[in-house]
Amino acid sequence: MLSPSSLPSDRRRDQFFVAVKENFLLLCGLVASAWILEIMDVFLFGSLNSFGIVPRSLAGVWGIFAAPLLHAGFDHLISNTVPFFVLGSVVLMGGRRIFIFASLFIVLIGGAAVWMLGPAGTVHIGASLLIFGYLGFLIARGLFERSVFWVVVGVLILVFYGGMLRGIFPTDPYISWQGHLFGFIAGILAARVMFAK
User: Where are the alpha helices (DSSP H) in the chain?
Assistant: First the structure.
């Protein structure tokens, strides 16, 4: 079986559109879940947000899994929806298994790092941990896989979304830069685990 990097460029393009089409419902389902939870949270006066990652709290461990679907209002959710769709679609170029493995790895490793190293008494929510994870994954994949195609994809992602990397630094006390940083690192590690030769 040919790898994506060995396929002709027109075949890779076809593969991209087929992968996105076949997995569109997966992306839509994840985004829809976040929107449904945010609508519910309005009626619950924001109480769902307490189920995010609470560093070094036993109850906060469950937040590792819940946090990517919880948001601090619709502005927060809207700002995460488009990059999730775009970067998630590009990750899906590799197929559903790679997308699922990378997503779970980023959520678990990045979320666990936030839980262990985040500031005490804080709550971390939002899909940005996953989004920054996809960013790190896509930038690193071509380097670990030694694929010209994926290196080019990584460069294009860096051109269009590289400005996001400012988010891994502490600039706003109300933004979880720890989630951004650890998500980004987890994405790089996911690429290494899957593609290092």
Answer: 9-43, 63-66, 74-91, 96-105, 111-117, 128-145, 148-161, 177-195
Torsion of CA 110, 112, 116, 175, to 10 degrees: 50
Percent of the chain with pLDDT over 90: 77
11-59: per-residue pLDDT in tens? 666 766 666 667 778 889 999 999 999 999 999 999 999 999 999 999 8
- Give the three-state DSSP class for 53: strand
Pairwise CA distance, residues 36 & 25, whole Å: 15
Helix axes 177-195, 128-145, angle to 10 degrees: 30
Domain ranges of the chain: 8-195
Give pLDDT, residue 54.
96
Bridge-partner residues for 181, per DSSP?
Answer: none
What is the CATH topology of the domain spanning 8-195?
Rhomboid-like fold (1.20.1540)
